[in-house]
């Protein structure tokens, strides 16, 4: 298992959901060559030279597309143009993906050893391996994504362990802490 299994699983669900969004034509993503060149031109600070360097063409070619004098690009240029636009448009999809995860919450599939602690009862000595799949609340998902963005594997593991155990064992609001150790498997779904 990798050194950061929880963060890796979070990035994997992020990529999967982002790619699902990217497969569907997005409203606002430029389709015509003129609109795609104009999109890159705006994104690169309205610099014709930067767009030309990015696409491997002469700056005058970029100007022709911007003015609408050139409309049917060669296949190789059209592919480069589409790839560059899609790469820059993907950051919008990444934000949409995170927003969807925050709104709906994630479902966590986890196999690990769970132990419990409460101030009144102490620690459970007989932690055992369990395979659980539970819905995390939107608030827990929000904290989990914040830990992912901060690169905090230990915090993410604590958040997911507490959230899954509270949902499975009905501990929400009980004041009992859950300690997760010996992580075997973790996966997330939206």
Which regions have little confidence, pLDDT < 50, spanning 5+ residues? Answer: none
Order of helices and strands: HHHHHEEEHHE
Tell me how many strands there are. Answer: 4
- The helix/strand class is alpha+beta
DSSP helix count?
7
Helix content range: 55-70%
First and last CA, distance: 23 Å
From the alpha carbons, calculate the radius of gyration and give it in angstroms. 24 Å
What overall geometry do the principal axes of the alpha carbons give? Answer: rod-shaped
Percent strand: 15-25%
Q: State the major sheet.
A: 4 strands, antiparallel
* Average pLDDT score: 86
Assembly level: single chain
Question: Which descriptors would you attach to this protein?
Answer:
56% helix, 190 residues, alpha+beta, four-stranded antiparallel β-sheet
Explained architecture:
Helix content is 56%, strand content 18%. A hairpin with a 3-residue loop joins strand 1 and strand 2. Strands 1, 2, 3 and 4 form a 4-stranded antiparallel beta sheet that branches. Helix 2 (33-43) crosses helix 5 (75-104), helix 3 crosses helix 4 (59-67) and helix 6 (138-150) runs antiparallel to helix 7 (153-169). It is an alpha+beta fold and 190 residues long.
């Amino acid at each position: 298992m990798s050194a950061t299994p929880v963060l890796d699983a979070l990035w994997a669900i992020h990529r999967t959901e982002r790619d699902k969004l990217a497969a569907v034509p997005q409203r606002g993503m430029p389709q015509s060559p003129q609109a795609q060149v104009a999109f890159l031109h705006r994104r690169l600070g309205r610099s014709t030279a930067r767009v030309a360097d990015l696409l491997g063409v002469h700056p005058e070619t970029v100007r022709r597309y911007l003015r609408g004098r050139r409309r049917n690009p060669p296949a190789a240029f059209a592919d480069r143009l589409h790839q560059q636009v899609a790469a820059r448009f993907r950051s919008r999809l990444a934000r949409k993906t995170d927003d969807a995860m925050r709104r709906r919450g994630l479902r966590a599939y986890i196999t690990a050893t769970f132990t419990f602690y409460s101030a009144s009862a102490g620690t459970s000595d007989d932690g055992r391996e369990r395979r659980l799949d539970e819905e995390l609340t939107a608030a827990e998902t929000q904290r989990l994504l914040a830990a992912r963005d901060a690169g905090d594997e230990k915090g993410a593991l604590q958040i997911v362990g507490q959230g899954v155990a509270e949902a499975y064992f009905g501990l929400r609001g009980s004041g009992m802490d859950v300690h997760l150790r010996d992580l075997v498997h973790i996966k997330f779904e939206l």
